[in-house]
Design a protein that fits this description.
Length: 160
């Protein structure tokens, strides 16, 4: 197996760091999101699952690291990609992961990107502030997944 396509340095510095005012706004969204009343473990699972779907190695790497900082276990982290079949996740986590997948795979659907059934299940577990935090995490993760895959940000890279 060849590693010819694996990059060790990004094509350029992360655009959010090149334009510092962009990062200020992003940091404010993150602060608000983490004050939205959702357990940080759930937000980290959301981040990890969206990053897995999008194939962003830098965000998968940081997602695992962030989840572990919040007490996540290896057993659960290894099962996130197969959360539907794995016995390790609560109904609340499953609702957040289903919402994450639907909102991330919008191009894979005809009709509603997020079905009423997925939305209703999430709304049964989370209030509007919590849903807002989850939706913002999904959106920001997809945002950074697209940036990082475009500039080929390697896993474990630092934004210094």
């Amino acid at each position: 197996m060849s590693n010819a396509n694996i990059t060790t340095t990004a094509r350029m510095k992360n655009p959010a760091m090149v334009l510092p005012d962009a990062m200020k706004g992003i940091q404010n969204i993150y602060k608000a999101m983490y004050k939205g009343g959702v357990a940080p473990q759930i937000l980290e699972l959301v981040h990890l699952r969206a990053s897995q779907i999008n194939g962003c190695s830098a965000c998968v790497f940081s997602g695992v690291a962030g989840a572990k900082k919040h007490g996540e276990t290896d057993e659960r982290l290894h099962a996130v990609a197969a959360w539907r079949e794995a016995p390790f996740f609560t109904d609340e986590e499953r609702a957040a992961l289903a919402l994450t997948e639907a909102a991330t795979r919008i191009a894979d659907r005809s009709g509603k990107a997020v079905t009423d059934a997925i939305w209703d299940e999430a709304a049964d577990h989370f209030n509007d502030e919590q849903l807002s935090a989850i939706i913002l995490m999904i959106g920001l993760t997809n945002f950074f997944n697209r940036i990082n895959t475009t500039i080929e940000e390697p896993a474990g890279a630092s934004w210094n």
